[in-house]
Amino acid sequence: MHTSYFVIVDLVIKSFTFLLIPIYAFLLNPIEMGIYAEWFSFYTLVFAISIFGVNSFIVVLKSKGIKDVNVEPVFIRFLAKWWLLLFGVVSLINALGFTFVLDYTLILLPIAAFSFSIIDYSTVKLRLEKSIKLYAGAQILTLLLVHLFPVVLTFFVPSAETRIFAFTFSLICTSLLFIIIFKQIKFTSRSYSKGIKSPQISNNRIFRYGFPFIILAIGQWFKAGFDLQLIKLNVGYEIVGSLGIVLQVSAVVLIASAIFNRIYSINLYNMIAKNEIKNWFFLIFKLSVITVLGSLAALFFGVFVFTKLITGYEYIEALMYPVMLSAAMYSIANYVSSVLFYYEKTALFTILNIFSALLHVFTSLYIISLIGPQYIGYSALVSNLVFMVSVILIAWLVQTNQSNQKCENQSPASH
After folding, report:
1. Which has the closest alpha carbon to 117: 243, 247, 5, 213?
2. CA Rg, the chain, in Å?
3. pTM for the predicted model, two decimal places
4. Could you write out the three-class secondary structure of the chain?
5. Is the dihedral of CA 254, 260, 263, 266 positive or negative?
6. What is the pLDDT of residues 346-392, one digit of tens each?
7. How far apart (Å, rounded) are the C-alpha atoms in residues 334 and 387?
8. Per-residue exposure over 44-62, b if at least 16 CB sit within 10 Å of its own CB, e if not
9. Is residue 163 within 8 Å of 36, Cβ to Cβ?
10. Residue pLDDT, tens place only, 226-253
């Protein structure tokens, strides 16, 4: 099945979700948007922690030809134990009184995150199986339940509380339907029930690959969630709502680039495996150009809608320009990082992300204290520029080192 079919399906579906942003901005006032933006920033953090990099690891294993029937049950049982631990931690935090403005919404974070983890894992499996009809059906089901259902409820009861509960409930229902309809979740396999264990995958290997993703998720939160908290403490939820809208628009670019990255990752990994670096570079260049053009289109659309059609949100234009450009830079870095992920050097990618996150924090503190909250988006621009350049440099060094090792290993055989 041609890769472009999956790209078209994803882009068509995601374009509908992009149009929902101004609808929510029209239905909710800036304060309600700010409350939801704060909750959603923590949801993205908990989701990234809960999936533990498994959705990336199965693609890497697929590209390396690992088709052992016991791989998936090992993944699922590992995640089940991890989710139980994570739910316990969140419950403890909730019991200690650390929560949001809507205090009872904290416990919804792991529930929503676990549900979407099932959806995301199943979607990746369908993509690997190259079943375009099932893949399109899964995406349409997600659009109807996860995205359109909360809009309908929020229309009748416009509040952040309604949107949070509707979003969580729709994720639960959709994940259950994915398990029943698409049957992509397997807890056991025939050979596993006979006691035959896989020599190719283990809990330790999953942990080594996935643990850096937790650090990565925390670093990513500091590039968005920290700014929301900083503005809330210094200005109020009204400006949090404005930044939340800008982050949602930039998320469209990040999601689109993640789609490209996920769909073309097998192609990129195969090119790396065959040492076809020129082809890898041209594919990266093509994806980067598309991402930059998409970022500019989303930028101008967002500025027009939230300055001309929907008013009441302060600093939208000042925030939109640097945040959108920074999203394009981060997307390019993710494309290039395919080298690090193929060679399972996730720790290097995480270290670079931590460094850029710390740079982001210090830059945000400087900007909001000395310049003003309307310019806080430039902290993302600076940190992601540094991140992009450093990822390109490290990826080049890793690939050069691996190529030299292959040449050394092949040279004795040639004599």
Report:
1. 213
2. 22
3. 0.79
4. CCHHHHHHHHHHHHHHHHHHHHHHHHHCCHHHHHHHHHHHHHHHHHHHHHHCCHHHHHHHHHHCCCCCCCHHHHHHHHHHHHHHHHHHHHHHHHHCCCCCCCHHHCCHHHHHHHHHHHHHHHHHHHHHCCCHHHHHHHHHHHHHHHHHHHHHHHHHCCCHHHHHHHHHHHHHHHHHHHHHHHCCCCCCCHHHHCCCCCCCCCHHHHHHHHHHHHHHHHHHHHCCHHHHHHHHHHCCHHHHHHHHHHHHHHHHHHHHHHHHHHHHHHHHHHHHHCCCHHHHHHHHHHHHHHHHHHHHHHHHHHHHHHHHHCCCCCCHHHHHHHHHHHHHHHHHHHHHCHHHHHCCCHHHHHHHHHHHHHHHHHHHHHHHHHCCHHHCHHHHHHHHHHHHHHHHHHHHHHHHHHHHHHHHHHHHHHC
5. negative
6. 788 888 988 999 999 999 999 988 888 889 999 999 999 999 999 99
7. 10
8. bbbbbbbbbbbbbbbbbbb
9. yes
10. 898 889 888 888 888 999 999 888 888 8
CA dist 314 and 374 (Å) reads: 8
**Torsion sign across C-alpha atoms 318, 324, 327, 332:** negative
CB-based contacts of 299: which residues, under 8 Å, 6+ apart?
A: 249, 320, 321, 324, 325
- Separation CA 189–CA 69 (nearest Å): 7
CA distance 86 to 46: 9
Tokens of 163: 């949107």
The domain limits of the chain are: 1-212, 223-403
